Amino acid sequence: MVHQYVYFFGDGKADGNAQMKGLLGGKGANLAEMTNLGIPVPPGFTITTEICGYYYENNLQYPPDLKAQVDDALRRLESLMGRKFGDPEAPLLVSVRSGAASSMPGMMDTVLNLGLNDQTVLGLMKETQDERFAYDCYRRFVAMYGDVVLGLKPAQKDQTDPFEHILEEMRKRRNVHFDSELPASDLKELVERYKTLIRAHMDVMFPQDPMEQLWGAIGAVFGSWNNPRAIAYRELNNIPADMGTAVNIQAMVFGNMGEDCGTGVGFTRNPATGENVFYGEYLINAQGEDVVAGIRTPQPINKAQKTDPNTLSLEETMPEIYQQLEEVRRRLGRHYRDMQDIEFTIQKGKLWMLQTRTGKRTAFASFKIAVDMVRANIITKEEALMRVDPDQLNQLLRPVFDPKAKEAAVKSKALLAKGLNAGPGAATGRVVFSAPDAEQWAAKGEKIILVRVETSPEDIRGMHASQGILTARGGMTSHAALVGRQMGKVCVVGCNALEIEYRTHRMTVGDRIIREGDWLSLDGTTGEVFVGQIPTQPSEVLSVILEGKGATSDSQVYQDYMELLGWADECRTLGVWTNADQPNQVEMALAFGAEGIGLTRTEHMFFEGDRIDAVREMILSDDVEGRKRALAKLLPMQKEDFKGIFRVMQGKPVTIRTLDPPLHEFLPHEEKDIEKLAHDMWVPVERLQAKIESLHEVNPMLGHRGCRLGIVFPEITEMQAQAIMEAACEVKKEGIDVHPEIMIPLVGHVAELKNQRAVVDAAAQEVMKRYEIQVPYRVGTMIEVPRGALTADAIAEVAEFFSFGTNDLTQTVFGISRDDAGRFLSDYLGARIWESDPFEKLDQVGVGGLMEIAVQKGRSTKPDLKIGICGEHGGEPSSVDFCHRIGLNYVSCSPYRVPVARLAAAQAAIRQKNAKS
Ligand code: ADP
Ligand code: MG
Ligand code: MG
What is the pLDDT of residues 432-450, one digit of tens each? Predict the structure, then answer.
């Protein structure tokens, strides 16, 4: 038995299918699937991703069996097509296409029209009676082969491609705009000049032997798996580097044979809004790459999409083809049950499908499609929930321009130009004209608008670093639009009015000049480009939430958002709480769906108004009496804060942490502040100075902080407990239910918690007696140092709940200070020592391993011990999934991440359920 490396598709039957993406890549698997569905696909075959792995592990060699299998498949293709590879009479031409399991649009290489040489081009010419067409294919092929396979690229970035350079010269000479206007003789001349260029620069001859061409192209496609832009793309999108690409070899169909030919791309729904309308672009008399390359701005596929009455849609120019395409769209939509991104080519009035894949979409579209498809009974609620990326939810909450400011900008003639609205949202920033500049400026903290004639895959890092992306050319499916949309960037493309001059770092628009560093504002929802800075404001969804209109709002996005999150709440078992310190934050979190407060940092309120004076006085007092005097001033203020929070929370649990940070964080450092404080406290300046110095710590994060403060100064804990309980009693007397949970930070030894618990209990009993009312309260602890986790069984004897403080726990488990990690973080990520920043994504193995121990030990003492997490990780989807798996009761995160956590928690529950069944 030989191992199968090559999978054939053609004539209504395929060896593979859509399930085989890992082996055949997404493109190959879907070409097979479409073939099986009876959709017209040019026949061909796929070399598996296994070969890519083999190729890299074996010094860029192939397994010995491969050649014979490729030869067989090629013979089969020849007989199906009735043409022969390299035949001077009726040559078979093929494309050699990359295609990995996860789609990486435009990142890897493809070669078209392969099989042409000085002989076969004559055959093609005779056969078609079309010299222009034959040489158009040949010149495209030589240029693509020279670039992709032989590696002839511009010497420097931002220089025009050397092949394009010659082509431009030819267009100038003829005084024409488009390649399609060049006569056959010019194209013939181009071929020769390209060949000369290759010989001169690369010191090789352009190969005439089709087999040599084929293996060259196959090697180049495998090689493109590891080109810098593909690597960068994988890093940004967390695609594993060892998956590899497949290679698809497919019979060519020609969209460049004349006016009854063309090529296009489309989405089965609008990828920006999610509306159920066909969306796409096409070009007459062109080959595939012309559409995405932005050489000519393509025309809309249908009348519905036309903005300019002078353009002609496919629906108008080729109505029958458009109807066939509509039919294919319907079938693909039904079959794949999701929005598809398609490529097609029309050869002499016949439609051919060249690709289908799940289409990238904005957050808006993602929501709309998921919700629509549930309403139409196409997918289940659970499927819908699994399809929406929790991180994309943030996009729905992204800012828009303040309408008044925008109106004013329009009135003051700040509107510079209008392009296509490829990526919604509002962005304002300073202009740069290259991706490396964008990266550099962004690193200095600047907000950036990246302006390019057209972006290319090399630009993705710079795009990532920018607030917004603006291009002069290209359509809604151009690289900038596709990638920008996926990154969630504000993006305006095809803004033809821009004349960009890279050399001088400026652009002109009519009579206006914009220089590098000038401010621009982009409205990605309308496509408008403004000079200057326009203030932004919350998104539509956010506005409805913030204004509390809720049920009365007729905003469709808001309705979809609420509906989907409602389904998420039905599915999830993990609670979603919030970290909030002030009543207004709490209100916002509740509007986002928070079910409790997992962390109130009391010290955040210490900086308000003149409170800091009392705090400083407390810290700098020499004795208990002095401290108590200062604390007595703080008590009523803290109490009012807590009352505000309790009132808003209406009986939902509120976890309040006792004082945590190192005290010197509150101390004055400026001379004049110290003088004032000394005056207020009636002590000599020198004494105060000395006291401040004595509080200095070498390593404050591991110093006198957390419960250590309350142990040394019990009056602090006592005051806080008293403030919490007095607030609770008073609010309860107002008729509002209250559930305070008092949380002791940084406990590593059960005796620490016992000590603090005694202080809290005593204060609580005293308060409740004084108020003559009982308020149920709990005392628990944060688990944020390794010893706390390892002795969780003992700690659980005293604690009524645990909350993982994973920020500190990550610091202490890694032995890395969070404040200093920035110095080596990027090196660690670059060297792949860490897969991700452990302060952002929970380290499930190390920190998470310790959490599992703590959960297991804690519950061995108290089986129903309530356990949550209140570190930053509580709002990060993969960490939320982990928390669900280890059986936490809730996650707590900042208000804005509450919706993300709700969805992530639902996905975690669904994933677990699916894994079990
Ligand atoms: P990418 O992954 O960058 O989209 P593709 O392999 O899909 O690369 O090919 C690039 C372009 O060439 C696409 O527009 C595609 O439709 C076109 N193309 C690929 N193969 C053929 C073919 N056999 N006949 C005609 N056009 C093709
Ligand atoms: Mg493609
Ligand atoms: Mg902490």
Answer: 999 999 999 999 999 999 9
Q: What is the Cα–Cα distance from 660 to 153, expressed in whole angstroms?
A: 58
Q: Which residues contact 211 (CB under 8 A, 6 or more apart)?
A: 85, 86
Cα–Cα distance, 111 to 168 (Å, whole number): 21
The DSSP bridge partners found for residue 780 are: 743
Read off the tokens for 280: 């796409």
* Active-site residue identified among 52, 137, 479, 883: 479
Instruction: Return the pLDDT at 763.
Output: 98
% of the chain beyond a pLDDT of 90: 69
Minimum-distance ligand 1 atom for the alpha carbon of 103: 2
Whether the CB of 245 sits within 6 Å of ligand 1: no
Give residue-wise pLDDT tens across range 557-592: 888 889 999 999 999 999 999 998 888 889 989 989
Nearest CA to ligand 1 atom 26: 288
Q: Which residue has the higher pLDDT, 517 or 412?
A: 517
Which residue carries 């693909």 as its tokens? 332
Catalytic site residue from 261, 571, 870, 883: 870
Any atom of ligand 1 within 6 Å of the Cβ of 288: yes
What pTM did the predictor assign?
0.77
| pLDDT over 80 at 722, yes or no | yes
d(CA 411, CA 400): 18
Q: How confident is the model at residue 486 (pLDDT cuts 50, 70, 90)?
A: low
Its sign, for the CA torsion 355, 357, 362, 368, is: positive
Pocket test for ligand 1, best of 47, 104, 112 (most atoms within 8 A of CB): 112
Give the nearest ligand 1 atom to 291 CA.
14
Q: In whole angstroms, how far apart are CA 459 and each of 239, 437, 439, 443?
A: 18, 11, 10, 16
Which-ligand-closest: CA of 96? 1
Calculate how far, in angstroms, residue 297's C-alpha sits from the geometric centre of ligand 1: 18
Q: What is the pLDDT of residue 531?
A: 95
d(CA 487, CA 460): 10
